Amino acid sequence: MDNEIIKYLSRYMIVTKDLEDAIIESEFVKRFKKGTILLEEGKISNECYFIVNGCVRSYYINDGNEITTDFFTEDQSVTPSAYGKNTPSGYYLECVEDTIAGVGTPELETELFQKFPQLESLTRALVEAIMLKQQDTLAEFKMASPEERYLNMLKNRPDLIKRVPQHQIASYLGIKPESLSRIRKRIIKQ
Fewer Cβ atoms within 10 Å of its own Cβ: the N or the C terminal residue of the chain? Predict the structure, then answer.
């Protein structure tokens, strides 16, 4: 499992034997069963995740309804907005599938960044790139109709259709499951 993290890092930097050993010794990579809640609304978030394999969903509850805000799959990081800030989370993180993830903590980050400054530089660059992509995705999402949102998801994240329950996809798109069914039927007819 640690090899996946090493392979990922190797795409962006030279991974020394010392860094590889530090990652393995830290027991950074963990397995979670489908349905595991990684973070609950109202709880303090002291962990961030890098998805090696699997799918994690973020959602909040409004009037008893789960509202899905995002899905995180392979090679994506999940850093809760309250991570390391000692403030309660406004949402849940749940494993939609059995998931293997690298799990970071502020203490582990500090330790690794002190020993391996190149890792801190890489992390900052990756976080900036992720934030820019998320801003673009959010702007596109807000301007799109529900059908356009679905078509964009089919184009950019087609794996989600097979991996995630339809009611969660509908929630993510901001529509009811019945509306998603109508959109899908319309697209199939075209």
Answer: C
